[in-house]
Structures
1.
Amino acid sequence: MHSDEREARLEERIAEWRAYLLGHQTIHSADVAELEDHLREQIDGLTEAGLDADEAFLVAVKRMGDLDTLSAEFAREHSERLWKQLVTPGADTSEAETSARREGVVAVALAVLAALLIKLPALFGLDFVEDGAFYARNLSFFVLPVLTGYFAWKRGLLGSAMLRWLGIAFVGAAVFANVYPFEPGGSTEALTALHLPIALWVAVVGAAYAGSRWRETAGRMDFVRFSGELFIYYVLIALGGGVLMAFSALIFQAIGVDIEPLFESWILPCGAAGAVLVASWLVEAKKSVIENMAPVLTRLFTPLFAIVLLTFLGTMVWTGAGINIEREVLIAFDLLLVLVLALLLYSISARDPQSGPGVFDVVQVVLIVSALAADAVALQAIGARISEFGFTPNRVAALGMNVILLVNLAWSAVLYIRFLGKRGTFPEVERWQTGYMPVYALWAALVVVAFPPLFGYL
């Protein structure tokens, strides 16, 4: 569809929305004009962010629904028709249909490629179970380069200098993951397997996803939003795949065929790798739709996590008990804090930055402050463990991650409280979070590159 036709159709939709509001006597024409100006601003912003005109209109009307009851009614009454038009383009949208079909074919082909790559080492005699350490260190390289290539293709980065640098980053990471003489079963090898995907995801996949917008707050926020929605889609695919395999095992068992070896050797690893590409494609293709689901989940779990942390801290104060300083407990505690941070990041990315402070923002501050207190307690426990048993790779890695989390949460709390007190703006919170993202990638890269030789590859 040509740009003139798109603009004409957008104007048609806006006129339809305006007529709907003017049809209600409870709202004056001057108010409608003001609302229309706001709607057009929202559409312009969303279009600049990469949405097409139909998607931008749909999202903008939904956001307007938060400001105006009639807009909310309009969104509800017209959502089904708009949805059908978005996911089932008509005859006049053959260009968009062809593009969507081509993108689907490319995504499925890349998913098959990722599934085959994870089986490639088997050709050289490396077993998925017996050589688990090799697969753990190299897990990122079976999927993330393919995913990076998908985004490079979508963003028009093929052949660019940026893509060459991303390729060099993958090669360098592969060298550090495989040339070190790791002690079998040692801590530094496990830390490499854990931190390498983090560094590559934030610094390489994120750069490919955002393209030329990677240095911008909006570009990084889009990547945060994509990461959260990818996680939701991936979990849904995994659940569906699990149910499918359970029923498959049952019906094949009825005729005396055991498919468990096939499941463990092929279906599980290939499915897990390919699902990342399929989920990414779904997020990209349906991003204006899933946008409705993810914010609901964050609004549901943010207060629940805040309650859990507050209850934990209150119980600890009431009983006078300290945190168990066993390694497994501290790792689980750190994972909880990372999960809280991910929830906070996604909540920020899903929020309209132009809206004023509300009740949910107060809940966010409670979550941040409680996570900050829990992080301080965890740091005290890690310090006690180091003073008693000395420095090890795991303790130093945990110490560094908790210090990074502490800084992030502390300044987030300051900025959020200033926003609630109307002495700061929400974009300041966004800029802090997106500006801090490279710190996690740098720390993860430091653990991968420096920790093995620093601790004798133990």
2.
Amino acid sequence: MTAHRVTIASVVEGEGELTALPVVLRRVMSDMMIWDADIQRPYLTNRSKLVKHGGLEASVESLARRVPQSAPGGILIVIDADDDCPATLGPALLQRAQAVRPDRRIAVVLANREFEAWFLAAAPSLAGRAGLPEGLPVPEDSERPRDCKGWLSHRRTDGGSYRPRIDQPALADAFDLSMARHNASSFDKFCRDVAYLVTGKRVE
């Protein structure tokens, strides 16, 4: 029934995530045997604006109107941790968001250090996509390197550079979700938070 359709409204900070995040969400939902979720086009905002007091609150208030209270799902905020500690900034942002709309399920995920780190965590599965060769190893502690985009550019064999708007959705469609969960704790949290939005039950 339409009234019970899972609805996810999200906030992202990068143009590549506008198309990449829905791809990842659909794949994670598919693993949960959910085929008809209403995964809305993410709302794009500037990270510094979002983190600033008032910015997050305005985004959450706006997105809450797009998520039916009676349906499963909620608001998902996905930004890069950059140099911030995800274990500190993430809970702080979640607390602020929940204070605005305690009547909605909300999840905050900080990709450590950036969204593309999740691709590095499953590097062997990227062969043939975005100019990447076979046999790429998973970097040691894939969430630690700075400039994941540069890592991807340097390993292309076609002479091109990594282009988030074009390459990010393609890699989002290809990377091994299980491998990424195993090697990137922030992606594992992402998957657990999506499950929370759907079921209302948190798994730590």
3.
Amino acid sequence: MTAIEAPGRHTPAPGGASPGRMVLAQAALETRMLLRNGEQLLLTVIIPTLLLVLFSKVDVVNTGPGERVDFLAPGILALAVMSTAFTGQAIATGFERRYGVLKRLAVSPLPRWALLLGKTLCVLAVEALQVALLATVAFALGWSPHGRGTAIAVLLLLAGTVAFSGLGLLMAGTLRAEATLAAANLVYLLLLVCGGIVVPLSRFGGAAHVLRATPTAALADGLRAALAHGATPWRDVLVLVAWAVVGTGLAARTFRWE
């Protein structure tokens, strides 16, 4: 039997939720949508895991002295960050803009900054799952990272996330959805091969100096220096910070919601 409240005790409170609750709700929604998307899971989880296992077990690429997994694991972590914060976010946001989702959200009680913060929290949540999975697989393959480099590795991952997120939103906010899809996948493939992820930059001769300025190479090399030697690669940190400032600054000035 349904209980009947006494007269005068019901006190409705119409209005929007608090900003914190809206951000958390949007982040949870974005995370569920991403994890239910098969193409996004292929890009962010399956491909990095397969590449880590394949190149660790099969001598396809000469990774230099030492265990192959010690070279590959930091590079694959960089690939995971790029796939989630840049490629996946650029494609998803581009099609949300095309289908009018962003336009409708822009007139909802959810502030624009809360929408962007919700997307950022979604990226960080997925990256945490990626790092946990890839680290587990790498440990099973014999990876032995330097414990002293853990703090700087976390700093590099955060800086790389901001840099790639800014570049992804810059692309999604200025190009058509189809162009974003093509360009994001092309950049993903180029940086997978030439960004120091599975192939050492020393194999590219004189072009290595240019490639080291890319965010992928800075993140991969920085993670290797931190996790393999316990070093603090300030140059790579500064490269990522520079990309983060440029990417987010241009995205903030040029992003179009419809």
4.
Amino acid sequence: MSASIPLIDKSLVGTTGARPGAMGYLTDTTLCIGCKACEVACKQWNQLPMDNFEWTGHSYDHTKDLGATTWRHVAFIEQMSSDGDGSATLPPFQSDWLMMSDICKHCVKAGCLEACPTGAIIRTEFDTVVIQQDICNGCGYCVPSCPFGVPDLSTTDHKAHKCTLCYDRMVDGLEPACAKACPTDSIQFGPIDELMERAQRRVADLQARGIRSAYIYGDRAVGGTYGIEGLNSFFILTAEPEVYNLPAAPALPQDQVGPAFLTTLGAAIALGVAAIAALRGR
């Protein structure tokens, strides 16, 4: 299997616009065993209710996706042959399953933060993005403003919720609960600049061992694209982003407002000109 990764600029590989002192996650999917200890630890520390398990028909994973009460989610992705007839032909290092522990990306330039009209979403001293529950009014503007679909409105209190990167643990010098619980160090926590260097060394090592499809998702070249300036929660992947339900080239929705307005204005002018021409032709 070889991943075809849409790099917008090779010179941006491994670069990030993270602010000095920024903290975050490196999630190495090649080390994830799908134990879901991170999900359980997140729910326990943050006192989140259990998920309503139901048969999805799509995977052995029945916690589905990130949500208002699921701030860490381990996706089980079964690899099938291109004709859909049985298992895919995979390299020796890999089983038929890809595992990825997904999380809020704590974007360097966060769409949710820019869209919030009340100031409930703030950037902390650790460069993480947190929703202040006592200020959130549940308007939901942050939901479509996230290119990764992370913030979610609760059906219980009708406010937006997402990962806080365990802010309450970080202020006490503790690592987030999910990283603490991960038995394989698939989830690593630390300063972004150190994690990015570690990720580049890991990708180089994997590629040297024959895993040519390994790459970083969350630098300026892939994932942190089009004004996002990188992700403070980034990943090492071995297949195309869409395989992991991640956008290949995410962009901030609000950056599309200007072009959309100009397109609408142009269409309105064209219709006006056409109407005037039709009336004169009578």
